Amino acid sequence: MSGPARTTATTSGGRPSPGPPGTRPIRIVLVDDHSIMRQGLRAVLEREDDLRIVGEAGSAPEAFAAVTAGRPQVVLLDLKLASGPQTDGLEVCRRLCSEHPGIGVLVLTTFAEDRLVVESVQAGARGYVVKDVDTTELVRAIRAVSRGESAFDARSASAMVRSLSGGIPDRERLTDRELDVLRLLARGLSNRAIGAELFISETTVKFHVGNLMRKLMVSRRAEAVYAATKLGLL
């Protein structure tokens, strides 16, 4: 895609529906090696009252610096960065999620390969959309990621479903207690809060979380919720 995402569904004033009134703007850092793409995204996204661009980067070092300086809630990340390999954005994603645990990385790239979608999620991304997504869907994805939710366009969601198409073997079915923990994970509760809800220790919660993530073949809590939803467990 050579320009910013196009707009389809809009309000009567010609703009995508705004976020909830009275909310603080979602702070965003744009990471893309094409300055024209970043300029286009900035122009489109800053039309939304609840979105604010606090930094831009065209390379991995610039991305780490921009995130440290801007303290964003969401990073829009292309997988292909300046003069690097096709997937150098995966390492950027992995390091950002490791060094800034609360950050939401939303991959916005030209590649729609199943492998890259799955590897991005494994690296910590909360969402994955391809650059020809329309503006309304992109804004919706940004808002979802800022809330700690997962966000995928149709093609990326299909890739995740295909990666889970084998389902869960009978011997690996989730127990009732693991399902209880999973439902509370989906509500965004911490291990401590889950323990309080279920009257079990935080250590026991960690044990159950580890088991259900292993059975769902994921490595992060957001992945577990997404996978469980696609498998009809939530």
Commentary on this structure:
- The chain starts with 25 loop residues before the first strand and ends with a helix.
- The radius of gyration is 18 Å and the shape is globular.
- Helix content is 47%, strand content 12%.
- Helix 5 (135-146) links the parallel strand 5 (127-130) and strand 6 (151-152).
- It contains ten helices and six strands; from the N terminus they run E-H-E-H-E-H-E-H-E-H-E-H-H-H-H-H.
- It has a six-stranded parallel sheet, sandwiched between helices.
- The longest helix has 15 residues, at 202-216.
- Helix 8 (191-198) packs across helix 9 (202-216).
- The chain has 234 residues and is α/β, with parallel strands linked by helices.
Helix/strand layout:
Layout: E1 26-31, H1 35-45, E2 51-57, H2 60-70, E3 74-77, H3 88-99, E4 104-109, H4 114-122, E5 127-130, H5 135-146, E6 151-152, H6 154-163, H7 176-186, H8 191-198, H9 202-216, H10 221-230
Parallel strand pairs: 1-2, 1-3, 3-4, 4-5, 5-6
Question: Roughly what percent helix?
Answer: 40-55%
Structural class: alpha/beta
Taking the sheet with the most strands, its summary is: 6 strands, parallel
How many helices in DSSP terms? Answer: 10
The ordered H/E elements are EHEHEHEHEHEHHHHH
Runs in which pLDDT lies below 50 for 5 or more consecutive residues are 1-17
Report the oligomer: single chain
Give me the side-by-side strand order of the main sheet: 2-1-3-4-5-6
Shape: globular
Counting DSSP E segments of at least 2 residues, the number of strands comes to 6
Report mean pLDDT, rounded to a whole number.
82
Question: End-to-end distance, in Å?
Answer: 35 Å
Rounded radius of gyration (Å): 18 Å
Q: Approximately how much beta-strand content do the residues carry?
A: 5-15%
